[in-house]
Amino acid sequence: MSLDQRELRDVFGCFATGVTIITAREEDGRPVGLTANSFTSVSLDPPLVLFNLDRGANCADAFAEGRPFAVSVLRHDQMAQSNHFASKAEDKFADDGFDWTEGENGCPVLDGALAQLECTCDSLHDGGDHWIIIGRVSRTAREDGAPLLFYRGRYVHLEGEW
Ligand SMILES: Cc1cc2nc3c(=O)[nH]c(=O)nc-3n(C[C@H](O)[C@H](O)[C@H](O)COP(=O)(O)O)c2cc1C
User: Fold this and answer.
1) Which atom of ligand 1 is nearest to the CA of 86?
2) In ligand 1, which atom is closest to the CA atom of 92?
């Protein structure tokens, strides 16, 4: 049975997630990044996370095995940054509409993010039209605040705890 792609996308979208911006550097040092909601934690010991990267992404080559990358978990008021990093802009860091700093591993982390994780690409796995990228975490930081969420193709925010 072949599944309808539109329906499949809509079904996947029923799973509510947070939103991250994942950054790395090209071989020549140029910073690159993309918005990703496929980020998830994997293991505490060793400290592993993963995200799924579209094989066709312009920045795909920057996420090779052994290369560093950084994950910024977005706060509820960082929707503009999410849209910016989901765009196909040539140089996403030329924009001065947001602040970022360089992490210890050399990759950009976004100021104001709820959490920051610096990682090294541990392994890449076949995930169909995506790469499954496993990262080993080397440094973390976090701040108070509410998350930006993504659900059924739209940004949403928390209404509070049960
Ligand atoms: C909320 C949201 C979540 C996304 N999650 C992912 C993801 O997990 N993996 C991915 O490869 N692209 C994801 N995308 C799409 C990329 O951010 C987008 O295709 C980006 O332009 C790719 O980077 P590039 O400019 O280097 O090609 C997401 C987009 C949005 C708006």
Assistant:
1) 17
2) 25
The Cα–Cα gap between 112 and 137 comes to 20
Structural domains in the chain, CATH included, are 5-156 (2.30.110.10)
Q: Which of 39, 53, 54 is the pocket-test mutation for ligand 1 (most atoms within 8 Å of CB)?
A: 54
The rounded Å distance from CA 35 to ligand 1 centre is: 5
For 139, the token pair is 């440094």
Would you give per-residue pLDDT tens digits along the chain (162 residues)? 589 999 999 999 999 999 999 999 999 999 999 999 999 999 999 999 999 999 999 999 999 999 999 999 999 999 999 999 999 999 999 977 899 999 999 999 999 999 999 999 999 999 999 999 999 999 999 999 999 999 999 999 998 888
* Residue 11: other Cβ atoms inside 10 A: 11
The answer, yes or no, to whether any atom of ligand 1 lies below 6 A from the CB of 150, is: yes
Q: Compute the Cα dihedral for 58, 36, 86, 22 and give only its sign.
A: negative
Whole-prediction pTM value? 0.97
